[in-house]
Design a protein that fits this description.
This protein has 2 domains: 206 residues, Alpha-Beta Complex (Quinone Oxidoreductase, Chain A, domain 1), CATH 3.90.180; 154 residues, Rossmann fold (3-Layer(aba) Sandwich). The chain is built from 12 helices and 18 strands. Strands 3, 5, 6, 9, 10, 17 and 18 form a 7-stranded mixed beta sheet that branches. A 6-stranded parallel beta sheet has the order 13-12-11-14-15-16, with helices on both faces. A 3-stranded antiparallel beta sheet has the order 2-1-4. Helix 5 crosses helix 6. The radius of gyration is 21 Å and the shape is globular. The protein binds NADP nicotinamide-adenine-dinucleotide phosphate. NADP nicotinamide-adenine-dinucleotide phosphate (NAP) binds next to helix 5 and helix 6.
């Protein structure tokens, strides 16, 4: 059986007991534990992959902390997490048409499309019986794979940073832009002011906005991540200057600065994956007819806003989740052309995966964390290491 990381109700309970319920002391690396995964037998439409590299995704921290739901408990006591990976195809079922042994592929995490194609469930999270990709090998349906664009100009680690974040951003952007355009046509306003707060999804969102000619602003606490985006012409705003909006003055000062930056107009589109104190700041700087979009709730699941004020300003507050399968394929076309992710300087070894999640929780990484799973890489990616 391949080695794979797991999160169990026992490991969560033990860590919660160790820290006496104080989640600030919680050590995620004690909860994400190396195990062995029983993979399902290959069906005719299945593909077996050797996992090459994976990216650290924040939902693992939610699963380990059990701070939104206790997903390990809901799933029967244990999950094998990991919903973003680059792999090499090592076996295909008889009915598989799109992939051959030796192909390098990406996974998407749309675990069960609804009638419109959006995910009802996320693979390796709330999709029952789904085994994730923080392991040495995996069996997935052909429909869960996208060919890896190996000639897009990105390294293997940069490619590995994107399968979850890029489709999320792609969906948020196309939808937020369409919403704004229902209200304000291109004839009236060509160039929009687009803001995102910190994080890999927000960075991809701004890369899309910038590539289409809009003004893009990145409000983050990380100087390294701001510097990387400034190289793409995306203006950095230091979030720590506003004490991360934990005081009313922080929001007020930010709002005043944004007015100056945008000639009094404000932000037409805001991406906020964090909620919590960031939500108020995003709404405060919304332009008339603005759109505030999110697929995350890292700092809070519940938000509060003044409905009257938002009506008067004609602001739309939108909630998204993950892309359709077609949208994931479309987002992949933009790797390297639009999406140029910032990767954390350490490429973690497979054995160090738990530490990478603890460091993500401590917010000390200067880019998206990547874990090298395979020691031996196929020749197809040797130039991308
Ligand atoms: N629905 C979906 O499909 C979906 C997909 C992807 C992600 N998500 C969720 O969206 C959230 C963000 O994901 P991501 O991948 O973009 O992020 P990420 O790359 O993991 O980065 C998280 C960012 O949060 C910021 N941050 C951390 N603590 C903060 C605080 N106290 N105040 C303000 N900012 C803080 C940091 O930004 P700075 O330090 O640079 O400011 C950091 O870069 C996560 O909760 C994730 O689970 C949802």
């Amino acid at each position: 059986m391949p080695r794979a990381y797991a999160i169990s109700t026992e490991s969560i309970a033990a860590e919660r007991a160790r820290v006496g319920g104080d989640l600030d002391q919680f050590d995620i690396s004690r909860v994400v534990q190396l195990d062995e995964a029983q993979l399902r037998p290959m069906g005719p439409s299945d593909v077996r992959i050797k996992v090459l590299a994976v990216s650290g995704e924040h939902n693992i921290n939610h699963a380990a902390l059990a701070d939104t739901v206790n997903i390990a408990e809901i799933r029967g006591g244990k999950i094998f997490p990991g919903n973003s990976a680059v792999g090499e195809v090592i076996a295909v079922g008889d009915a598989v048409k799109k992939f051959r042994v030796g192909d390098v592929v990406l996974t998407h995490c749309n675990g069960e499309p609804d009638i419109y194609g959006y995910p009802l469930r996320i693979w390796a999270y709330d999709k029952p019986d789904s085994v994730g990709w923080y392991g040495e090998e995996a069996v997935v349906g052909e429909w869960q794979l996208v060919p890896a664009p190996l000639d897009c100009g990105l390294s293997l680690w940069e490619i590995a940073a994107l399968p979850l974040r890029a489709p999320t951003a792609y969906h948020m952007w196309r939808r937020a832009l369409a919403m704004f355009r229902i209200k304000v046509s291109r004839e009236k306003k060509a160039v929009l002011n687009v803001l995102s707060f910190g994080g890999g999804v927000g960075e991809c969102f701004l890369m899309l906005a910038k590539s289409e000619g809009h003004n893009a602003y990145f409000c983050s606490g990380s100087p390294e991540r701001r510097a990387a985006l400034e190289k793409l012409g995306i203006v950095g705003i230091d979030q720590k200057k506003y004490e991360r909006f934990t005081s009313k003055n922080g929001v007020k000062d930010f709002s005043n600065d944004v007015k100056k930056l945008t000639g009094g107009e404000g932000m037409h589109v805001v991406a906020d994956m964090l909620r919590g104190p960031v939500f108020a700041a995003g709404l405060a700087v919304a332009a008339r007819c603005g759109v505030n979009t999110s697929a995350g709730w890292q700092l809070s699941q519940v938000v509060e806003y003044n409905s009257t004020l938002m009506s008067v300003k004609q602001v739309t507050i939108d909630h998204t989740h993950y892309e359709t399968v077609d949208g994931c394929w479309a987002a992949t076309e933009l790797y390297g052309k639009v999406f140029k992710p910032t990767v954390h300087k350490e490429i973690y070894a497979f054995e160090d995966l738990p530490r990478s999640f603890q460091e993500m929780q401590q917010n000390v990484q200067a880019g998206i964390p990547i874990v090298r799973v395979a020691k031996d890489m196929p020749a197809a990616v040797s130039k991308l290491l």
